[in-house]
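Structure first, sequence second, as always.
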């Protein structure tokens, strides 16, 4: 799942340095408690776990634990807490922001063996799973009851529910159905001291502070989810998909705004520009309209009569914006082909460029034409090609920045262009991430979007869960911080070794 050639100078490549005495001692204790076969320390085996889908960030962990039971996680986290060793949870390792990159000499807790479907309760539309369960398996379990799991990241065939919860994953159909946070009802969490707590439950609402909501999207910094309750939705009576070709990006983007302004909420509106279409054609021959400078894949679902009427309105909106070709999927095979072009677009870009860098930012969808034009200008000025493929209904951009990784400095230029695009997103009133998370990649950009007070407030929440700062440190927040005994206002008396990071 690695993106070829992604880059950063932030985290150096690791060498096969010998394990520290602390790591060796911890590995021995872990083996004694959870069993020999689940604890990896051989450098060759550890290398497999050096990175996630953002392959430029690589750190070799001290120890990998292949958890096979909830209690393996509990024991590992508790032993880490006793030894003061940081740990990082890992699901399927498809993350695109370096969230599951290990900490050097720390423990990586791999959850992909925790793959039990604990229960399926169609009457209450609930499925309870272990964290390593693959996203698509939930829909597979629910399908016999005419139900489905709505969040559908493009990586849904491989990414885990635990990783989805940690990243608050989205997908094409989140425009209508909401993100992971809207579908997680409860979770069993191993806190960073090894205690087990249950947040939320099966009921739709719980009084008090929404701690489950705080956990979703916390990128592994608040603990490890070991069991998750999700809600399923009723499969719609009718689904209709259309592919619309445009001669200009502006017309395609304008159609998106017009549809939503007309009060229609499609299940999905996805957009691809000419370069993304070229890549998808080269990779999967999806047969998109020839000569299109932009295409929209629009899906409507719901009761048949409603879908029919909305379909008519959507087609009119596209026509008013000079759409030159509109195709309607006549059956499941045609629908699958329309989606194949879109869902394979990231990997497809590898067909037209030796390397590429995926960014993820959000803008208000009404600003799509202006921001896309500005991305074009930035790309031209940097002499770099950018393919755009994205969740247009949400304004969630995924610029794919193409470069040649054999050219010195090209990777760095691509990264800088990606960051300039994020600045555009923030300036447009959007966000530095829509669904891929902050991880290690974008933590420096958090202060572009949030004030120091905002970040301090988030840090107070993290400290409440993880006062020792052991859960996935160095991710999400812009500067390394430690949680002091006394969160709050600082005085000169709080002076500490700056090498340890900011005490909070
Ligand atoms: C081709 C491709 C397409 C993608 N498309 C999308 C998309 O459409 N939408 C989208 O949202 N994402 C997308 N992604 C990104 C990625 O698949 C998601 O972020 C996904 O949620 C990561 O799941 P994972 O199991 O691979 O997690 P990992 O990469 O293993 O981990 C991600 C983060 O979650 C933490 N974590 C993992 N498991 C747990 C747990 N049990 N408890 C606590 N923390 C945990 C990790 O520490 C890390 O911070 C795509 C990735 C690829 C490669």
């Amino acid at each position: 799942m690695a993106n070829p050639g992604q880059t950063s100078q932030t985290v150096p490549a690791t060498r096969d340095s010998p394990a520290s005495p602390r790591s060796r001692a911890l590995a021995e204790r872990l083996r004694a408690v959870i069993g020999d076969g689940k604890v990896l320390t051989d450098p060759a085996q550890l290398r497999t776990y050096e990175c996630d889908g953002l392959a430029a960030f690589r750190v070799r962990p001290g120890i990998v634990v292949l958890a096979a039971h909830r209690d393996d996680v509990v024991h590992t986290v508790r032993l880490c807490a006793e030894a003061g060793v940081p740990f990082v949870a890992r699901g399927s390792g498809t993350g695109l922001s370096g969230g599951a990159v290990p900490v050097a000499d720390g423990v990586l807790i791999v959850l992909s063996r925790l793959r039990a479907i604990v229960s399926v309760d169609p009457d209450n539309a609930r499925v309870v799973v272990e964290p390593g369960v693959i996203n698509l398996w939930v829909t597979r379990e629910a399908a016999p009851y005419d139900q489905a799991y709505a969040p559908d990241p493009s990586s849904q065939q491989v990414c885990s529910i635990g990783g989805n919860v940690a990243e608050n994953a989205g997908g094409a159909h989140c425009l209508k159905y909401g993100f992971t946070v809207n579908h997680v009802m409860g979770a069993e969490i191993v806190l960073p001291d090894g205690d087990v707590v249950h947040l939320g439950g099966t009921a739709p609402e719980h009084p008090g502070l929404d701690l489950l909501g705080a956990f979703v999207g916390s990128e592994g910094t608040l603990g490890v989810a070991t069991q998750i309750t999700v809600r399923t939705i009723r499969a719609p009576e009718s689904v209709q998909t259309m592919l619309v070709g445009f001669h200009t990006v502006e017309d395609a983007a304008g159609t998106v705004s017009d549809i939503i302004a007309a009060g229609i909420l499609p299940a999905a509106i996805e957009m691809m520009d000419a370069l993304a279409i070229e890549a998808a054609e080269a990779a999967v021959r999806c047969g998109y309209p020839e000569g299109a400078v932009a295409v929209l894949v629009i899906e409507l679902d719901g009761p048949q009569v409603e879908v029919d009427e909305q379909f008519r309105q959507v087609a009119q909106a596209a026509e008013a914006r000079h759409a030159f070709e509109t195709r309607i999927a006549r059956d499941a095979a045609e629908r699958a082909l329309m989606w194949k072009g879109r869902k394979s677009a990231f990997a497809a870009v590898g067909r037209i460029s030796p390397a590429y860098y995926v960014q993820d930012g959000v803008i208000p969808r009404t600003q799509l034409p202006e921001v896309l034009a500005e991305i074009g200008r930035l790309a031209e000025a940097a002499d770099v090609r950018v393919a755009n493929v994205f969740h247009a209904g949400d304004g969630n951009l995924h610029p794919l920045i193409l470069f040649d990784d054999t050219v010195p400095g090209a990777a760095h230029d691509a990264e800088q262009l990606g960051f300039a695009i994020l600045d555009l997103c923030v300036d447009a009133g959007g966000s530095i991430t829509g669904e891929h998370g902050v991880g290690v990649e974008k933590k420096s950009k958090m202060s572009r979007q949030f004030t120091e007070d905002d970040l301090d407030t988030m840090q107070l929440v993290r400290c409440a869960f993880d006062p020792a700062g052991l859960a996935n440190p160095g991710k999400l927040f812009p500067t390394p911080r430690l949680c002091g005994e006394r969160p709050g206002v600082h005085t000169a008396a709080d002076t500490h070794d700056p090498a340890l990071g900011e005490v909070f």
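Margin note: The first strand starts at residue 39 and ends at 40.
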